[in-house]
Amino acid sequence: MAKIVLAYSGGLDTSIIIPWLKENYGYEVIAFCADLGQGEELDPVREKAIKSGASKVYVEDVREEFVRDYIFPVLKMGAIYEGKYLLGTSFARPLIAKKMIEIAELEGAEAVAHGATGKGNDQVRFELTARACKPDVKIVAPWREWNIRSREDAIDYANSHGIEVPVTKEKIYSRDRNIWHISHEGGELEDPANEALDRVYVLTVPPEQAPDQPTYLEIGFEQGTPVSVNGQKYGPVELLEKLNQVGGANGVGIVSIVENRLVGMKSRGVYETPGGTILYAAHAELERLTLDRRTLQFKADMALKYAELVYDGNWFSKLKMAMDAFVEETQQTVTGTVKVKLYKGSATAVASWSPYSLYNEELATFGVDEIYNQKDAEGFIKLFGLPLTVQAMLNRKLK
Predict the structure, then answer these.
(1) Which of 66, 78, 154, 329 is 20 to 30 Å from 300 at the Cα level?
(2) pLDDT in tens, 140-167
């Protein structure tokens, strides 16, 4: 019997895909689940996959690799998709797909499968990565083939096959969770006119219910990588878990966005990224202190394209890897500490210090200084404004 490796989450879609693949392709189905920090969601995964018909289940803890090699590079770039989305699902898919191909090679499987729909971005992310790792791989995408057309249909299929799933027709949110974030789609959220209800949130309290007093954190960085909280050193996973806990308790990181999907449509999602929001605020402030203006501005321009590459599934593209090399060079002096104030949903950098600070108090002071001769500005302004002067002279002559 030919084998196929399925990227398995234990959710509605991948749970029903196991019996569907057996019924329609005759495959022996091997389930692969990457532990990206889903928490308690992983507890029943092995048992559920076997009960759904999988012959074997791999659950691999890749949290360290995920944070170190996927989250932190995007953080260092400062990439944000369409000004709001911190790319939590986007950079998780390439890692899952890479590991899925490794399992397929190990098992001698002829194909791989995923549960992404034909309307979504994830199908592109899974398949571009799969082909980057194994160009001739066979890919099965059930949502593009079967006659199931909605989550309601999927629930009916699950019920008819005796498969327990974590959703009902009344609570029908589609969620994706990892150590960086959790996303929410579906149900009443599909209408952008509906504000997300408090019941949606998993990682954060509603900002209105957060403490009435602010919480202060000091985030330490070494060459752009966060390494400590309040002077205490943490590994990548532990640091993010700590910030998620504190940020979530203060209502930080909730975003509602109508985003442009790669396939051409707009979709509405609600994201919770408590720890990530804190890190973005802190990292950006430290760069303002340690990078010169032109580098900072050029990097900001690159971040827009970088975010698009990641969102579109081009994680292993040559252009993204070249951008990574540029960013690593910029981060050599991004070392120091940033104090962040958390208060009812906001994360605001309020102070920063670094041994590589480009801020010079003697130059910037409004008091007496011995370095800057203010009279020098007169000649600079005349030369800097020379094109305007020439244009004005011409305009006067033409009148």
Answers:
(1) 66
(2) 999 999 999 887 899 999 999 999 876 6
What does 262-310 look like in DSSP terms, one character per residue? TTS-EEEEEEE-HHHHHHHHHHHHHHHHHS-HHHHHHHHHHHHHHHHHH
Classify domain 181-291+334-353 at the CATH topology level.
Argininosuccinate synthetase, chain A, domain 2 (3.90.1260)
Please state the domain extents for the chain.
3-172, 181-291+334-353, 372-398
| Cβ 257 vs Cβ 85: under 8 Å | yes
**144 part of the active site:** no
Tokens of 159: 């019920």
pLDDT tens for 304-362 read: 999 999 999 999 999 999 999 999 999 999 999 999 999 999 999 999 999 999 998 77
State yes or no: is 151 an active-site residue.
Answer: no
Task: Read off the DSSP letter of residue 84.
Answer: T
Say how far apart CA 117 and CA 140 lie, in whole Å: 12
Instruction: Tell whether domain 3-172 is in CATH 3.40.50.620.
Output: yes
Whether 122 is a known active-site residue: answer: yes
Are the CB atoms for 125 and 97 separated by under 8 Å? yes
Q: Select which of 13, 15, 52, 125 is catalytic.
A: 13
Given the residues 46, 52, 122, 175, select the one marked as catalytic. Answer: 122
User: Is the Cβ–Cβ distance between 144 and 28 less than 8 Å?
Assistant: no
Look up residue 183 and give its DSSP letter.
Answer: E
Catalytic residue among 9, 15, 52, 174: 174
* C-alpha closest to that of 338 among 292, 283, 291: 283
